[in-house]
Amino acid sequence: MGLLQGILDYESHQKALDDLVRHYRPQLSQIAREGATAIEQAVPDYVRPHDPRYAEVVQQAAEYAIGHWFDMVADPALESDEVIDFFRELGVGEAREGRSLESWQRSARAGTSAAIAYITRRDQQAPPEVPGELVGQITASVLAYIDRLAEAVAAGHAEANAREIGEYQGRRRRLLELLIAGPEPDLKEIRDLAAKAEWALPQAIAVVAVRERAGLTVRRPALPSEVLMGLHLDDPCLVVPDPEGPGRRRMLEHGLSEWTAVVGPTVPLTSAVRSLDWARRGLELTRRGHIPGDRLVLAVEHLPSLMILDRPDLLCQVAERRLERLLELRPRQRRVLAETLLACLESGFNATEVAQRLHMHAQTIRYRVRQLEGLLGEGIYDPAGRLELHMVLHGWLALHPESAEERTGPVRTG
């Protein structure tokens, strides 16, 4: 079915329509010139004084559109596939030129108004008789036709934008893959691909390992464009440039609020694989429940756990040796004393500081320290073994999350 069928009353006005086509079809070039002039006046973007071919293209497009309308008036069954394809490609060109659809819509309105004004003008030599009701139908048919061309332009514009976005995202995905591909990625290749991906090379980066949270409908992370997204990978990750810059941590906390995310350490550009390794280790520990994953995790804040929890069997052996008598206590009591000893090691056995950290009285801390001395001996003060003891306590507490019994049971310290 032709585009104008159902709009023009061919049965009642066939002769008037035939006369209109015979009169105006030979004037097509003049009508197109007036339409092109109106377009250039309405949309300065289409004026290229240094490139006369551009004005020719505008007029050719106007002439093609108007000519096809005359052809449809003469043949109501005429198909419009070819002209629709032409204007779809015109939409592609508009997108490549960087113009919005608003520019084309303004040009279409200007050109259409000029064409209608020309056809309905009464000062021409021997114009055909056009009944008043047919004038309204002609106007409606032109507007419906232009709407259909506008749909084609919009489709081409959207297709071009989608292709451009797809190519842009594809280049950025390839850049991320190159950065994390191995310990020694080619810096020249990184620079070349970064230029194509419009990604400014940073001095340092961090890789963030991410995982969707179970039971949640997770949206795409809301992060700025300089963050490279690797959500297409089997083990998704992100590359964050200059991660220690102002506002970076807050940006990640906000953008990844619906994700479990672990930020690897800051490394040089060509060392992304090292940051990724630590980030993925941390993410695995959140999966096991050894590190809380309900908020953004910085790997550097959990280095002892990351270093020793890869080998839980080895950790348990060392814990049995260093903490043997402590581990024989009731669950709640051994956790309380283990947490106290860890805080003491991190505070230089300053009872006041430990009490502030654990929110209790300093005298209680001194009493617990005496208990620890009785269980583990003076070795808790030995500088040579302090690092091992510190790491073992970190690991043991992570491997043994607090149970319901420990949360509710009484604490016996004597």
From TrEMBL:
PucR C-terminal helix-turn-helix domain segment(s) = 337-393
Q: Which Gene3D superfamilies match?
A: PucR C-terminal helix-turn-helix domain
Pfam families in the cross-refs: HTH_30, PucR-like_N
Q: Which InterPro entries match?
A: CdaR-like_regulators, PucR-like_N, PucR_C-HTH_dom, PucR_C-HTH_sf
Q: Which domain of life is it from?
A: Bacteria
In this chain the PucR-like N-terminal domain maps to 19-180
Put simply, this protein is called PucR family transcriptional regulator
UniProt source species: Actinocorallia aurantiaca
